[in-house]
Amino acid sequence: MTFFEGARRRTGGASLAELAVVVGIASIMLAVAAPDLHALVAAQQLRTASGDLLGAITQTRAQAIARNARVKLAPRDARGADWTRGWTVFVDRDGDRQPGPGDEILQVHGPVPEGVRIDFSFTQSAPPQYIAYNGAGRSSSDMGGNASRLGTLSLFHGAHVRRIKINMLGRVRVCNPARDDACDGVEAPR
Where are the alpha helices (DSSP H) in 68-98? Predict the structure, then answer.
């Protein structure tokens, strides 16, 4: 008997029946865990989208203060109402509320993950929607003057909700209505 023949006899593999049992148990465990995994992914996508939008709002405010000028954040769709398609931070030199050739583009963000929905509830909520900050870092209307523009952006993904609230001074915060007080906003879609 050679070394290799002895090694072959001593090594045993799994039989087809044993392998089928292991695959069956793994399938059952995966089927039980799949709904929780989907909810976990949806919650993470919502946290990421709200964090990205919060970062864009914070950048808009910081750039307005640094430039001592009005800086805007607007959705990237033609009507100016669908935030899920992404957004642009820009200095609106021509005053048309949309980023264009004469404007200085500071940041462009692409679409949010599929399934995330964003609703806008601000003073003067009619499209085109935008968030603007003046040189003092206060939320403002793009029509000039000192009229503040406060409100809430509500983000939804399945049963998960996050809200981004901007107060009349321009301060911004993220809240979760399931656990935070004073986190009201648009009702979740049914």
Answer: none
Task: Give pTM, 2 decimals.
Answer: 0.79
CB atoms within 10 A of CB 138: 21
Asked whether the beta carbons of 185 and 121 are under 8 A apart, the reply is: yes
pLDDT tens by residue, 11-56: 567 788 888 888 888 888 777 766 677 788 888 999 999 999 999 9
At a CB cut-off of 8 Å and minimum separation 6, what does 40 contact? none
Structural tokens at position 13: 């593999």
Cβ burial 82-106 (10 Å sphere, 16+ → b, else e): bbbebbbbbbbeeeebbbeeebeeb
Let me know how many helices (H) and strands (E) the chain has, helices first. Answer: 2, 8
Q: Which amino acid is at 154?
A: S
Euclidean distance between CA atoms 170 and 187, whole angstroms: 23
Q: In degrees to the nearest 10, what's the CA dihedral of 188, 150, 82, 38?
A: -40
* DSSP 8-state assignment for residue 171: -
Q: At 75, which helix (H) or strand (E)? A: strand 71-75
